[in-house]
Design brief:
The protein is an alpha+beta fold. It has helices at 2-22, 31-35, 38-49, 57-64, 89-100, 106-110, 114-121, 135-144, 190-194, 207-213, and strands spanning 127-131, 148-153, 158-164, 167-173, 181-185, 197-202.
Length: 214
């Protein structure tokens, strides 16, 4: 009887842990082997690159990025295949942009400090800087800046912010648990909240970025 109770407790702990982290990233076995495979990803890449327009930027991004969820993070990760190998935060940003059809040097841009990377993507008028700003103030400014796709640079990290009808999301290759590409509610993302310095570049509607994209 005691063994059964201990087994039940272990199962409940595992199930609760899984349910919590499944909100941020797919942990299902076979996610990249059966559902979001590298082979399918290449087909989607071709589809979005053949369907480029300013109005399609966010929808195309949403088609690509689920393939990356759960891909392992590493500081030196450079994979171009979701679910295969590992990817650093900067390479995640530049690889997704490249696969969207943006004209850029993936490796060179990924190795720049995040603020410099953003300055290479968008023009000055769509770059905002926040120094020691509380997360709720930062997110208020994101919402005030409008719906769309952003790149954000932090103290030692970078990723995307997507502000859409469903909320404000931080999508990044996380060097903290669970050490993979995740989609998190921005208000609950500890890495985003803890950063003292944030640089925000809005991709949507920026003319300089659109010249690279179209």
């Amino acid at each position: 009887m005691k063994k059964a109770a201990i087994f039940l407790v272990i199962v409940l702990v595992i199930a609760t842990t899984y349910a919590y982290f499944a909100k941020s990233t797919p942990l299902l076995p076979g996610y990249h082997a059966f559902f979001y495979t590298p082979k399918k990803y290449q087909k989607v890449v071709l589809q979005v690159q053949n369907n480029q327009s300013p109005e399609k930027l966010e929808s195309n991004f949403k088609k690509l990025v689920p393939y990356w969820y759960g891909t392992r993070w590493s500081f030196n990760g450079t994979t171009q295949k979701p679910g295969d190998g590992s990817i650093a935060c900067g390479y995640f940003v530049t690889t997704v942009l490249q696969d969207l059809g943006v004209q850029l040097n993936r490796s060179q841009l990924a190795q720049l400090p995040s603020e410099q990377m953003i300055k290479n993507l968008v023009s000055t008028e769509d770059i905002q800087r926040f120094n020691n700003t509380p997360i709720f103030t930062f997110l208020y400014q994101v919402k005030h800046s409008g719906k769309g796709l952003y790149v954000v640079g932090l103290d030692t990290h970078t990723g995307f912010i997507l502000n859409d009808d469903s909320g404000t999301w931080f999508i990044h290759s996380s060097g903290a648990f669970p050490f993979c590409v995740v989609k998190q509610e921005a208000s609950k993302a500890k890495i985003l909240a803890d950063s003292r310095y944030r640089v925000l570049g809005k991709l949507t509607g920026n003319q300089e970025f659109m010249r690279k994209y179209i």
